[in-house]
Each structure stands twice: as C-alpha cells, then as structure tokens.
Amino acid sequence: MLDTMKHLVILGAGTAGTIVANASRHRLPSDWQVVVVDPSARHTYQPGLLFVPFGGPTDLERPRVDTFAHGVDWVRLGVSEVDALGRRVTLSNNEVLPYDLLVVATGCRARPDLVEGLTGEGWGTRQHEFYTLDGARRLASALDGFRGGRLVVNVVDTPITHPMAPLEFAFLAEAFLTARGLRAQSEIVYVTPDDTLFARPLAAKRLGDLFAYKNLKVVTEFSTRAVDGATRTLRSFDGREEAYDLLVSIAPHVGAHWVEAGAWGDARGFVRTDPKTLRARAMDHVFAIGDATDLPCAKAGSVAHYQANVLVDDLARIAAGEDPVGGFDGHASFLVETGHGRAMLVDYSNDVEPQGGTFPLPGIGPFTRLEETRANHWGRTAFQWMYWNGLLPARPMPVPTHMGLVGRELPPSLHRPY
C-alpha cells in the first residue's frame, strides 16, 4: 500500500533535537510522522556536569525513551550518510530512512585527542576535562585530593559548547578552595585563545571586574600547541608556557563525523546554516539547530530553545503549505555561576548588547542582568528541574524567544567595587 504519511526526521536527541521533536509532534498534523535518530540510550543534563567536580548533583541522566512525547518515534541507531537530493538518511546498519523535512541536531563533541600530549602522561590524574560525566567525576576526585598549587583552566580553541562553563569553573574553583581553606596556597589561572573574557564589551567588563576581585589570573591570546604531562607544562604556538599542578582543559569541539566527511559543513563538521531561517545552505528542506550549526551565536541550551521556537513555527507553516518566516535573532541567555551562592545573568542577541535590567519580566524579574545576585543563583540551581519538566517536553515557558529592550537599562554599578 502506498505510504501517504509525511516524515519529519530529526538527527540527534540532545537538547535541541528533543525540543524540536516534542514540539513538532504537538504542532504538526496527524499525517506527519516525527522520527528522531540517536544511538545513545540515555539523555544527559549537560549544564549539570559543571557542578560534579565540586560535589554537585549525581542525577544528571535519564533514559532517553522517557524524554520523548507520545507519538515521537525513536530510532536507536547512528547516521552514516545523508542524501539531500534523494531525501534519504542511511543509518549505521545500512537501512535507509526517507524524509520530507530534515532537522540536523547532532550537536558537537570535545576532542581531547586533537591536543598534542593532552591525553598522554597525566591524563585523568593531572590533566582533566568536565564535558563528559566520567571526566567530571575523575576531576571531582582530583579536586578532593588537591592541597594547593597552580590550577589552570585552559580553553584550547573556540567555539565550544556551554561557552560560559570554563569561566564558571574558575569562579566555582575559587569558592571551593576558599571553603576548604586552600585559597591562599592556590593560584587559579584562566588561559584563553581570545583577547578578552567575553566577546561583548559590557559583559567582558563585568566578568573582568569579578576576576580581578577574586584574584583570578587571566592569560589571553594563548594558542595552545601542546601539553607536556611529564613537566606539567602548557605550551603555546608562540613559545609561551604556563606551568600547572592541575590542568582543566576544554578541548576543541567538532561536529558530527558524517557532516565533517561530507559537503554539508565546515572543516570542523558544523553545518553551514542561514542565521535567520536556520536552513542548511542551498537545501530548502533541511534545517540545522543548536550546537550542530556553524552560526556565530553561542552553542548553549538557551540558544537551542530560542532557535527551536522559531524553527517549529516554520515547520508547522511548511506542513500547512505556507512559506516559512524565520527570524532567529541570535538570542542567548546565561545564568553564570560566580561562586559563593551568587550568579550573574548575561542576556543578549545579534543586535542587542548585554545590558542591565530585570528578566524575564520588566521591573519584576526575578533575575537581574549583569549583576551578581542570589536570585540568579537559585534560578541556575532550579533550572535542572525546569529542563526535565518544562524545556525538554516543549511546554510553554515565560521566556521571550526574541530580544527586546523593555526592562533593559545600562547597569549603574559597572565600576563599583565588589
């Protein structure tokens, strides 16, 4: 019998893919099948990995099958190839999956093996990462045995997923060592290839003030060439060196291997994507979202959420025979943990710089932009519950998808001492 169903296929079931799948199942007509392709049996709450080295939550994973709305079909296989002209996905078992619309949400992954020497002598004892659950747990053990010395947080290259996480790690390490009475015996050094702590000036100023107040050293424009585990030395391409007793490395990130191997993406495997419509370039039936794209916006859960709102609206329009509208504006929101029970909200878009004011409700909040507050911290802490119960199920949330100027103001206290 002729198959009259239409097929929306979503590659990847991380934050972006799961939100799109669940929201689309509620929005698309009954003659559309929603299929998600992902080989992993479990879904990890990635923002929580940051807290694991400091004794944070352990319940960061759930069975993937429990994260999908009723009516979403899950194919637990990998992807070998995508034939855009034939609108077919070849799976890892060589089966072929047809599609009418395709969403690439395959995220990105850290590659410590791309850094010379990083995974050699000292890997897992003196050199660590926290972008995987196993790595975060090993780092927790290392910090538990740390008795002072030089702690170096090194961003090897950008872009990375959760771009604020390395900064947060430095702040949390300062609070952790202070609480243990080890701060005076410890130096915390943040080593970055960029020329500032953050690309947006007001946020960079605020973060820089915090680093200075907390006596955190910053080394900029350090392009990491190699790690020498035997001498505990980080080396740059221009000959500079940074010694360490404990190294926390944020390795280069790459996209899906099949994107990297084909003509879909850039040299790192990120899908070439239109910034407004989220279409994969030159393919009107393929879209990309979240960390899988080559867009200059941050690779973060908030961005995936805002993108998903725009994309699902357009998928519903296409299913109804209408033209898509697009309009993603690069909106990103970060509740940045700064230690000692406080956090700072950084909220911006492509066209609107980070400023002060309250969020999401003007004059009410409860969160405050570019200010360290306890309310911001509690919002960051509560987000794990919101993630599982609101964000992933694609329930309506009181957060604007697009940036506006209502409730925003220049922070009056940018130059105040802490």
Return the CATH architecture of the largest domain: 3-Layer(bba) Sandwich
Task: Report the sheet with the most strands, covering strand number, pairing sense and barrel closure.
Answer: 5 strands, parallel
How many domains would you count in the coordinates?
3
- Which of globular, elongated, flat, extended, rod-shaped describes the shape? globular
Mean pLDDT: 92
Low-confidence stretches: 405-418
Structural class: alpha/beta
Specify the CATH homologous superfamily of the largest domain.
FAD/NAD(P)-binding domain
Class of the largest domain, according to the CATH hierarchy? Alpha Beta
Q: Give the terminus-to-terminus CA distance.
A: 71 Å
Query: Over all CA atoms, what is the radius of gyration?
Result: 22 Å
Task: Classify the beta-strand content into a percent band.
Answer: 25-35%
What CATH calls the topology of the largest domain is: FAD/NAD(P)-binding domain
Kindly report the spatial arrangement of strands forming the biggest sheet: 5-2-1-9-20
Q: What is the number of helices?
A: 7
Can you summarize this structure?
The chain folds into 3 domains: 6-108 and 255-319, FAD/NAD(P)-binding domain; 111-252, 3-Layer(bba) Sandwich (FAD/NAD(P)-binding domain), CATH 3.50.50.60; 334-409, no CATH class.
Offer a few descriptive terms.
5-stranded parallel β-sheet; alpha/beta; FAD/NAD(P)-binding domain; disordered C terminus; single chain; 7 helices; globular; 418 residues
